[in-house]
Design a protein that fits this description.
8 strands, globular, binds dihydroflavine-adenine dinucleotide, TIM Barrel, alpha/beta, 285 residues
């Protein structure tokens, strides 16, 4: 499916395209709409040193390209693409030159959070990169019981956080299972981040989460330059426009690349209505 010619029509709502050129053209369009971007080069877990090094080199080239385009664009990476399943050291060595280069270009590497088995090692690498360069952002998932403690530590280290609800299937031993519990924890963590965090990112399409963040911001007189909202490319475009029109910073997570299938399926699974939406669009075109 990933190489089928009809795939582009299917995925274009959520994925910028297959090439860096298509990604850059989406970033430039967003820039004209006053929206920032973070680049995600699609891929999943790798198991060999060669594949991990290839991901590093691809991202170094992306950073070069994005750095030239300017516009405050960041990059988002998944550590399993950089060899985290092989070893923490291999992964750290692959991520290091990328964060160094991001610093040189005045931008940031946003380190996505994957399934719970990787959280400890991901946070170790985030801390090491922060200590060395400072140009990283960590991701915290509100569905994990441990996240309040992690948010506390990251705020203490001055590491910016992107707070999301969490996208993986996690067992009850480690994660809240009910939406209402996840939402309650999300709100609790938003409060901590806005009070003590460094340039936090509120990453959600849930109007209630956005409204709660704005309530805290207004009550505490927090200026729009001190935080940002983040959303996924193609999701809740109405809410995206409203946030920008109200004068707040919005950054979209814009994926591209050939390996779109798992990302695309996660987006469909989050909201089965998307399947109908896409089917209607396919028929209309
Ligand atoms: P929720 O799932 O409760 O949805 C609220 C509303 O948003 C829905 O009612 C619907 O209107 C809309 N919506 C949500 N998903 C939709 C979809 N797919 N299609 C259409 N509408 C949809 N996760 C993770 O585990 N690690 C990570 O590193 C990241 N990184 C990340 C970056 C950014 C910028 C975002 C926005 C999200 C992530 N995520 C993530 C994903 C996140 O954990 C979560 O799975 C999704 O954002 C959906 O959760 P919401 O907060 O949107 O709320």
């Amino acid at each position: 499916m990933e190489t089928s010619p009809t795939a582009d029509r299917l995925t274009s709502r959520f994925v910028a395209g297959r090439s860096i050129e298509q990604e850059i053209s989406v970033i430039e369009r967003l820039k004209r709409e006053n929206v920032l971007a973070t680049v995600d080069y699609l891929g999943e877990n790798v198991h060999s040193l060669e594949e991990a090094a290839a991901t590093r080199d691809t991202y170094l080239a992306i950073l070069d390209r994005v750095g030239r385009a300017g516009a405050g664009t960041t990059i988002s990476i998944k550590l399993t693409q950089f060899g985290l399943s092989i070893s923490t050291d291999v992964c750290r060595d692959n991520v290091d030159p990328l964060v160094a280069k991001a610093k040189e270009l005045g931008t940031r590497v946003e380190i996505d959070m994957e399934s719970s088995e990787y959280v400890d090692r991901t946070l170790q690498i985030v801390s090491a990169m922060q200590a060395r360069y400072g140009s990283v952002r960590s991701v915290i998932q509100a569905y994990l019981y441990r996240s309040e403690k992690d948010v506390d530590c990251l705020c203490g280290e001055g590491i910016p956080i992107r707070l999301c609800k969490g996208a993986y299937k996690e067992p009850a031993e480690v994660a809240f299972q009910k939406k209402v519990e996840v939402d309650r924890n999300y709100v609790r963590l938003v409060h901590i981040m806005l009070e003590r965090g460094t340039y936090p990112a509120i990453a959600s399409h849930d109007e209630k989460m956005v409204a709660e963040a704005l309530r805290v911001v207004k009550a505490q007189g927090i200026g729009p330059e001190r935080f940002e909202f983040q959303m996924l490319y193609g999701i809740r475009r109405d809410l995206q426009q409203k946030i920008v029109a109200d004068g707040y910073t919005l950054r979209l997570y814009v994926p591209y690349g050939d390996a779109w299938y798992p990302y695309f399926m996660r987006r469909l699974a989050e909201r089965p209505a998307n399947v109908m939406f896409l089917a209607r669009n396919m028929l209309r075109r």
